[in-house]
Amino acid sequence: MSYKILPLQTNRQERNKFQIPLNTIYFCGNSLGLCPIESEKVVNQIIQEWEQNHIHSWNLAIQLPLKVGNKIGKLIGAEENETIIADSTSINLFKCLGTSIAIQKIKNPNRRSILLDRENFSNDLGLLKLLSTDEYKVRYFDDENQLEDFLNDDVVCILLSHVNYHHGKLYNIKKITEMVHKVDAFIIWDLCHSVGSVPINLTEVNADFAVGCTDKYLNSSPGAPAFIYVNKKHQNVTWQPLTGWLGHQSPFKMSKDYEPIVGIKNFLVGTPEVLPISIIDCSVEITLDAGMQLIRKKSLALGDLFIFLMTEKCPSFKLVTPFEYEKRESHLSYQHENANEISKWMRKRNIYSDFISPDILIFAMTPLYTKFVDIWNAIENISDIVKNVESKNFDESCVSLN
């Protein structure tokens, strides 16, 4: 294993655009990003517009899902009007699965298999419960190397997370998409843990569908709506299964007959959440301004430093995430038998990471605001905590280093 700390030169001050908790080291950007300073101003502005312009403010706000969706589209390499902000990741998966099945009924009506990675993030796959088990079957594969053996002319579609949230492996989106298309199946990419972390080009790889949340590396508000990407070639073949009023050709006619709007807007369902989408707008602007290539460079450099120092100072931790650049993104998963206890003591020292039962700690570095010195300071503390935990020499006096 060799280490190469990448040089990173930038005059940008992205960190200053976020509310950074005082005396805190934050490695939870893969779960919830920090709050952009501009978001408070944006929320107050929306409320003032509502107060002053009442229903007239709605005429502009109703365009937000597509406007902001197109900005996210730039981060994932989508063409104009292929990405829209709507609902949650789980609901968007429901739409993608339903649309995939409906199109395949037209193209390849005898297909019955839906493939899932056994370690996919536990999003709600409620649509699969509604399907007749006699008609459709869900097949699970255990890793990328098995996938090719599962692909055949019975496959409708495959749902796969671009980044495995548990061990942090980054999948080869181009290679896998090409593999799936060879059997004329569709692929739905879950980008929750990669959007805003690694450069993505869905147009280049000819992806079919994608979903993703906005509250992780895109740093929007907790519970903010997600996004959905639909390749233009799939947008007008059939309806998506949730025929909500805003996906109607003429929503304000209140017609009893549903006539789907043409294009990506058909993947809207209900009224857009104006306040959180406005926050997404300002947070995505920060990412676009920084540029994904620079973000990726700093991400790898931060990760290299973290791995180097953990190997040197905390050898009892086992790195679970692949070391190779092409197989990792911004979060590193480490295994330790005392992970839960270590995590609790870290929080007492205001060092935040994610814990996955029974023994995994996840350290997510968000290049927009994580500093290199944060890593040095964090690992000095973690090393001290591990020594105390392993020696069973812990009490409240160990909360902070002198």
TrEMBL record:
Domain of life: Eukaryota
Keywords: Cytoplasm, Hydrolase, Pyridine nucleotide biosynthesis, Pyridoxal phosphate
Entry keyword annotation includes Magnesium: no
One Pfam family recorded for the sequence: KYNU_C
GO BP term (any one): L-tryptophan catabolic process to kynurenine
Cofactor: pyridoxal 5'-phosphate
PANTHER family in the cross-refs: KYNURENINASE (PTHR14084)
Family according to the record: Belongs to the kynureninase family.
Location(s) in or outside the cell: Cytoplasm
Annotated GO MF terms: kynureninase activity; pyridoxal phosphate binding
Subunit structure: Homodimer.
Name of the protein this chain belongs to: Kynureninase
Function: Catalyzes the cleavage of L-kynurenine (L-Kyn) and L-3-hydroxykynurenine (L-3OHKyn) into anthranilic acid (AA) and 3-hydroxyanthranilic acid (3-OHAA), respectively.
Reaction catalysis annotation: 3-hydroxy-L-kynurenine + H2O = 3-hydroxyanthranilate + L-alanine + H(+); L-kynurenine + H2O = anthranilate + L-alanine + H(+)
Pathway membership, UniProt: Cofactor biosynthesis; NAD(+) biosynthesis; quinolinate from L-kynurenine: step 2/3; Amino-acid degradation; L-kynurenine degradation; L-alanine and anthranilate from L-kynurenine: step 1/1
InterPro entries referenced in this protein's UniProt entry, alphabetically: Kynureninase, PyrdxlP-dep_Trfase, PyrdxlP-dep_Trfase_major, PyrdxlP-dep_Trfase_small
Entries under Gene3D superfamilies matching the protein: Aspartate Aminotransferase, domain 1, Type I PLP-dependent aspartate aminotransferase-like (Major domain)
EC number(s) on file: 3.7.1.3
Cellular-component GO terms for this entry: cytoplasm
Record keyword Transmembrane present: no
